[in-house]
Amino acid sequence: MKFTIVLLACLLAVACANEEADVVKEYREVNIEDFKYGFELTNKIRAFQEGHLQDEKSWLVKGEYEFVSKDGKHIKVTYTADEYGYHPKVEHSQ
Q1: pLDDT by residue (tens digit) across 3-32?
Q2: Confidence of residue 93 (pLDDT cuts 50, 70, 90)
Q3: Residues contacting residue 63 through CB under 8 Å, at least 6 positions apart
Q4: Which of 15, 25, 30, 80 could link 40 by a cystine bridge, Cβ 3.0 to 4.6 Å?
């Protein structure tokens, strides 16, 4: 569930850019008890996420994504997600 929420947040960042872009870098590693993935696009959208299974029911996930908004601000979101929810920290600059 939390993985889905975080994944949707990353996809939202990509959709907010509203432009076509090519993949510059892509990485993914998915195992039973952990995962990592990341990508970078030519339009300066970048995302990275990793997580591991803490116990039988709980994942600990952390990551970040960044993009340039339509008004030209650089937005960077770092986050963690655990059994207590999604914990984002948003930074933006001109």
Answers
A1: 555 554 555 555 554 568 899 999 999 998
A2: confident
A3: 6, 10, 47, 48, 49, 50, 51, 78, 79
A4: 25
Of 53, 66, 54, 59, nearest to 81 by C-alpha is 59
Q: Cβ(50)–Cβ(35) under 8 Å?
A: yes
To which residue do tokens 């952990």 refer? 34
Query: Mapping DSSP to helix (H, G, I), strand (E, B) and coil, where does residue 81 land?
Result: strand
Q: What separation in angstroms does the CA of 45 have from each of 1, 11, 40, 50, 82?
A: 24, 11, 6, 17, 25
Amino acid letter, residue 40? E
Residue 55's pLDDT is what?
87
How much is the pTM? 0.73
